User: What shape does this take?
Amino acid sequence: MGEVKPEDLVAEAHTLASRHHSSLWIGLMRVLTARLEQFPVPAEVVPVREVAHRYWYGAGGDPAQLMAAKELAWSFLKKYPPGQDVSSREGRLVRVWLCVLEPNGDDEEISMTTEWFSAMLSDLPAE
Assistant: This one.
């Protein structure tokens, strides 16, 4: 995927939010979800991808669905020793899916989310 810059993600989110008359957060979640859908995920966490896609690209949904997906992602990550999930491709990808499981966020959360997303994908270990 190459280097992913936080400012590029925010610019893309602004464009999408303006085009669809939505909040910057929704625009960002759609941008991040679309980028993440390019990567395969472990079978155990396919529901995480499905919930995020339905929530951000569908008619919204119940934030409880995002919370359930978040719990599933964390359950998957528990198979790694603490802090070791970021050393593996699968672990990083599941971690980065956590970025799109928050129903709303402010400017600070947008900044932190794009920084984390960028860091996790820019140096993604090979398969």
